[in-house]
Amino acid sequence: MPYVKIELTREGVSREQKQTLISGITNLITEVLDKDPKLTHIVIQEIELDDWGYAGEQVSVLREKGITANKQQ
Amino acid sequence: MPYVKIELTREGVSREQKQTLISGITNLITEVLDKDPKLTHIVIQEIELDDWGYAGEQVSVLREKGITANKQQ
Amino acid sequence: MPYVKIELTREGVSREQKQTLISGITNLITEVLDKDPKLTHIVIQEIELDDWGYAGEQVSVLREKGITANKQQ
Amino acid sequence: MPYVKIELTREGVSREQKQTLISGITNLITEVLDKDPKLTHIVIQEIELDDWGYAGEQVSVLREKGITANKQQ
Amino acid sequence: MPYVKIELTREGVSREQKQTLISGITNLITEVLDKDPKLTHIVIQEIELDDWGYAGEQVSVLREKGITANKQQ
Amino acid sequence: MPYVKIELTREGVSREQKQTLISGITNLITEVLDKDPKLTHIVIQEIELDDWGYAGEQVSVLREKGITANKQQ
């Protein structure tokens, strides 16, 4: 009986990216825990940049300063 | 001190249906647990169909295939 | 696709009371929203009294002062 | 590793008020728990008044009756 | 800025299985969304079987009846 | 109507520290948003170190490697 909630800043995640997350996490849980996928629910919630705080600052402010969350090369 | 969160796919739930859920659940908790209703908060969150995954697929895709969540007759 | 989370202070809720909450809320959602009960998951989480704050005070402190959450007669 | 979620009724909270909450809570956690602010994430979620139930009623209904959540003088 | 919460029934998930979930989901999010893994937090919460309701019944009752959540062969 | 959830790794947070967080956050919300503290609920949830993943690793593993979440001097 798994339930998964994913909270993300709203920064242009596409429908296809959401589907990839949903199928990938469901497959991982099915394999690792041997859970029936019909008992696995995944909810994605996108959060406005004014509504996410990191290190004491709104992400919208961090983005205005040019600070991103991208994977560093 | 109860707090209840209800997450639902966004599929046309009316204001009256929400009120029925809120009053029904508050009454149930008041009766079963003898809790003061003034200490009972209920939050409903509707989730877009692209953002809910079930059995590894977006609910929007399931609905396009004609698969509903309705009670089976 | 409903998911319901119930957070309660840990104050002696019995297995039977939990079952009554689970069946009552599932029935209410099934009736009001016409949802298949097999798509309805309900999670109960009991919270220690030191870990719940109300009006700026720990519930454990409120209980020591004789303040309860019981329905007022 | 703190994560904080704040759920509020959507009643005109400004960007500046959100920033004050984010910086104030991050500072408090940093001081009280000695946590690195770069490990502290805070998410604010505003809830429509039809979607928040208090004492068995939608907040939208309470507001129509003139009942507010303001601090009492 | 992703935060992921995984709720599971408490049925013997090992430390290694948890690590596999954490690394697998973090890698998936890093690849699909190009997010810095240092901004990705994942929280696993195991739920007692009396505290999870499915289709109106406690999972503990379903397990006593021999109904499992295992992937069907 | 604010509800706040604080998730923390379980690393020896004392009852007094929890009370300081609860009163501090309630006061902040009362001041910034002019909310009645009797409508403000705060829930603290401590998470085992095996159950929190950061940057793809369990916090228990990070701690074994000597990596802490303490504020850097």
Automatic annotation (TrEMBL), chains A, B, C, D, E, F:
Keywords: Isomerase
Catalytic activity, EC: 5.3.2.-
Superkingdom, taxonomy of origin: Bacteria
SUPFAM superfamilies the record matches: Tautomerase/MIF
GO molecular function (one): isomerase activity
Isomerase among keywords: yes
Domain (4-oxalocrotonate tautomerase-like): residue spans on this chain: 2-60
NCBIfam families: taut (TIGR00013)
Family: Belongs to the 4-oxalocrotonate tautomerase family.
Name of this chain's protein: Tautomerase
